[in-house]
Design brief:
16% of the residues lie in helices and 21% in strands. It has seven helices and 16 strands. The strands form four sheets. The protein has a five-stranded antiparallel β-sheet with strand order 5-6-7-8-9, with no helix packed on it. It has a five-stranded mixed β-sheet with strand order 11-13-14-16-15, with helices on one face. The protein has a four-stranded antiparallel β-sheet with strand order 1-2-3-4. α3 crosses α5. It is globular. It starts with 6 loop residues before the first helix and ends in an 11-residue tail after the last helix.
């Protein structure tokens, strides 16, 4: 996906609390392949219980100033708050006591409990927290101690993540119309690389197993450009990576989960469109076309889990392409079940040679990506025979 959130943002917020048809050969598992380990080998703990929708609406990140953010999380059926700036830099989990449907309190380091209320929009989505007046923050003990706060009027903390609204993923206004950028990008070529590289071996993922479902966001308007960029909702990876992904799936199926693919191989011209469409201040979120990306090499995949029984995507601590602190694979917020889902996906992927992107819980790179060059072949030119009848979400 959109590759890198700034290092400074990550260090501040990741709290420790935390071309052609011949490219497509028939897919077949190697003879004598070692059976996949038992599914329980990727489990680290029993599946936790779910929590109420009210709690799911509340957990998240509040406060858009890096030095003054509040994270609310659920652990073992209890709500906690993380707010180092209120506790002299202490990153501990402080318990929350609910007072009413929209109010709660938490420990005060220098007096009575701090009280806060939530503010919601017309749809019920919480948009901000408000700490009520008369809270005294940590007192000065040394000349270099953190500031003490005297709240004489309501102190608002706007929501800094997408909340529980699935429509709130990362958006930009393209610098130029995407149709114009596509026309220009298709006339260009990727940067030259010294090589040598393995011969491309792109495999269509949906053909490998019916439990691989698709939700290709860049083939719809549900992406950061708010317009389709791909002409077909399809997903491809290099053969070894595709085989590894099927082994991941077979480890997850006994646990009741399938794989939902958002993106995989991405032609270089699309990376060029992303770069040119993104304003200067947003380029930290997209890959530089002069360097290419692992998606361009057919060795990266953006994905999540879905429930085999219902066919519905599972809940994660953050949304796909959200681009907030919730995107970090070690983000300590969310609910226990959401983190359990995220960590299960990560363990399953890592067990077969994938590495999670340090800024995106959904983005995984296959271990041999350096063996492949940057590709710029459109989906239409890779296709052979009829298009697969993949289940799309």
């Amino acid at each position: 996906m959109i590759p890198h959130v700034s290092r400074h943002l990550r260090l501040t917020l990741a709290l420790p609390l935390f071309i052609v048809a011949s490219f497509l050969p028939a897919f077949a598992a190697p003879q004598g392949q070692t059976p996949a380990p038992a599914a329980d080998s990727i489990l680290s703990a029993p599946e936790p219980s779910d929590v109420s929708s009210n709690w799911k609406n509340l957990v998240g990140v509040y406060g858009k100033e890096k030095a003054r953010s509040i994270t609310i999380t659920e652990r073992e059926g209890k709500l906690f708050l993380i707010a180092p700036f209120l506790y002299a830099g202490d990153n501990s989990y402080f318990p929350i006591r609910q007072i009413g449907n929209s109010s709660f309190s938490f420990p005060n380091p220098s007096g009575p409990p701090i009280q806060a209320v939530t503010v919601a929009d017309g749809s019920g989505h919480i948009t901000q927290l408000m700490i009520t007046p008369d809270f005294h923050g940590p007192p000065h003990t040394t000349p270099n101690a953190p500031k003490s706060y005297r709240i004489v009027e309501p102190w608002y903390f706007p929501r800094a993540d997408a909340g529980s609204d699935s429509a709130h993923f990362y958006h930009i206004t393209p610098a130029q119309p995407v149709a114009e950028l596509r026309e220009k990008a298709l006339k260009l070529s990727p940067p030259e690389e010294p090589g040598p590289f393995r011969k491309p071996d792109l495999v269509e993922l949906a053909r490998l197993d019916p439990a691989i479902h698709l939700d290709i966001r860049y083939a719809s308007a549900k992406n950061f450009l708010s317009t389709p960029v791909y002409t077909q909702a399809r997903a491809f990876m290099q053969g070894p990576a595709a085989e590894a992904l099927v082994r991941v799936l077979h480890k997850l199926q006994p646990l009741g989960y399938g794989l939902l693919i958002h993106d995989a191989y991405r032609p270089w011209y699309v990376t060029k469109i992303f770069w040119d469409a993104t304003p200067p201040e947003g380029k930290i979120f997209v890959a530089d076309p002069q360097k290419g990306s692992k998606h361009n090499r057919g060795c990266a995949v953006d994905l999540t889990l879905y429930d085999l029984a219902t066919g519905q995507p599972v809940e994660m601590p953050g949304l796909y392409d959200e681009m907030s602190p919730r995107s970090f694979p070690n983000f300590p917020g969310g609910t226990s079940l959401q983190r359990w889902h995220r960590d299960l996906l990560r363990r399953a992927m890592e067990s077969e040679g994938f590495t999670v992107n340090e800024d995106e819980w959904w983005h995984f790179d296959y271990k041999n990506w350096k063996q492949y060059g940057i590709l710029n072949v459109s989906f239409e030119k890779i296709a052979v025979g009829q298009q697969s009848s993949a289940i799309s979400h």
